[in-house]
Each structure stands twice: as structure tokens, then as C-alpha cells.
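Same chain as my last thread, 129 residues:
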Amino acid sequence: MKHFIVNIGCEYGSGGPDIGKLVADSHGIRVEPCGHCGDGNIHTELLRGPEMSDEEWKKATHESLTQLYALSKKLGGQLSGEHGIGNGRLDFLEEFAGERMIQLYKSIKRAFDDKLILNPGKMIKIDEN
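reply #2:
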């Protein structure tokens, strides 16, 4: 099985640069990887400096994640989350899963939750119009 974690870097023994930190630094964000790397779950914590406005923070995090997820996909990685995709990754899900899988996810959601009352807006966004 092929695994790729963007931000393992030198701290976790790869001997190479910590790409997550390099990308985030280029957008003025500090990154601290943490987690339990023994099972492949590395959590990238993007940290906001007090000097950043809300607008700057939103733009910088989106640009950083866009670059990191694109690199992950290029290297054969998948978008995932230990506890699910979550709101922070929804905007990037279709790029990884593709339109066909998104439609399948929506069909499954509607089959089990036809009133769309269970965790609205989580994992899949369904336009009710």
C-alpha cells in the first residue's frame, strides 16, 4: 500500500525538507505537525500569528491547503481525515474523489437521511433546490 504524508519532513525521519512547513511559511503561516505517526495519522496544525487579519488568515490557509493537497494528489495521496473529511476539507473533496463518487455519496446520504437532518453540511453538501 502506498502512503504519502505531506508534512512528515525531517522531524519524523525522512531526511528531507518538511514540505508542509515550506508551503505554509511561504504564506506567512506557522505549521506544527503532531499526531501519532506510527499509524500514519499526522495532524498539520496551521497556526495564525496575531498580526494576521481574518481575511489574510482565510486566504493564506486556503492557498496553503490548495498547494499541499495538489502535491499530495500528484504523489498518489488521498484526501482523508482521521475522524472524517470535516468542514475544512469539503472544498477539496471533489478534486480527489471525482464527480461520480460525490454523486454516489449524495445518493447514500439521501437513502439514509431523506430529510437531510443528520449532520447537515457534513461530508457532503446537498443543495435542496
